[in-house]
């Protein structure tokens, strides 16, 4: 059975690129336009990993991560931030919110897939 990954980014093209990378590696993908949209799509189904941008309208990635971690079904779901944001204080906020990895854009598909494979349990 394929593992499901949620991609949360306000950029349609970025969601497409990440989606193609993940689908090519055999994952199922759910997309969220921003944190608020993504939270609405967390309806109890099994999601093995979340990849989120930090800077988005409506709800940023760190607020989204913190909110997702409050939901019993997603408390242990690993979250990767895929972002242009390299500020240390943002990274610390992300860690405090439960973010497990920080990948900078522009990303190399193999780097992203490496992080995904480390965090998704077999």
From TrEMBL:
Pfam families: Response_reg (PF00072). The keyword Phosphoprotein applies. Residues 4-120 form the Response regulatory domain. The keyword Cell division does not apply. The modification 4-aspartylphosphate is found at residue 53. Keywords: Phosphoprotein. InterPro entries: Bact_response_regulator (IPR050595), CheY-like_superfamily (IPR011006), Sig_transdc_resp-reg_receiver (IPR001789). One of its GO terms (biological process) is phosphorelay signal transduction system. SMART domains: REC (SM00448). PANTHER family: CHEMOTAXIS TWO-COMPONENT RESPONSE REGULATOR, STRESS RESPONSE REGULATOR PROTEIN 1. This is Response regulator. It comes from Noviherbaspirillum saxi.
């Amino acid at each position: 059975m394929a593992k499901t990954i949620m991609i949360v980014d306000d950029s349609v093209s970025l969601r497409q690129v990440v989606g193609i990378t993940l689908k090519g590696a055999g994952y199922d993908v759910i997309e969220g336009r921003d944190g608020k949209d993504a939270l609405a799509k967390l309806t109890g189904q099994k999601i093995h990993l979340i990849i989120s941008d930090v800077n988005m309208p409506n709800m940023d990635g760190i607020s989204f991560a913190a909110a997702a971690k409050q939901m019993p079904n997603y408390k242990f779901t690993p979250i990767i931030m895929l972002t242009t944001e390299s500020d240390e204080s943002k990274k610390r906020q992300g860690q405090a919110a439960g973010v497990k990895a920080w990948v900078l854009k522009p990303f190399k598909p193999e780097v992203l897939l490496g992080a995904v494979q480390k965090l998704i349990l077999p």
